[in-house]
Design a protein that fits this description.
The chain is an all-beta fold. Helix content is 0%, strand content 27%. 6% of the residues are buried.
């Protein structure tokens, strides 16, 4: 299924962006891409297969902005918005 603003997430790549990390190059773009996941179904756990610790830009923060987008840049829409989306972040001191 092609990703678009009104599509239900199914077997599609979902790009996870986070304003906390330092921008890095993905292809030719300098972006704050945290990770990607492949959603085979709308419901259930979708886990990042390989955990990478990315450098953070902020040492103090109150809010973290996380965006879930499909490959074409549209919002990863979920059919039932009453089901919460939970993102777990791991931090490591270096």
């Amino acid at each position: 299924m092609q990703g678009a603003a009104g599509d239900v997430v199914s077997s599609t790549n979902v790009l996870i962006y986070c304003d906390l990390i330092i921008p890095h190059f993905v292809s030719t773009d300098n972006v704050r891409l945290f990770s990607t996941i492949i959603c085979h179904a709308q419901l259930g756990n979708h886990q990042v297969q390989n955990v990478y610790y990315l450098p953070v830009e902020k040492t103090r923060f109150q809010d973290i902005r996380i965006e879930l987008l499909v490959s074409d840049g549209g919002s990863a829409a979920f059919e039932d918005s009453k089901i919460p989306t939970k993102v777990v972040l791991h931090f490591r001191r270096v």
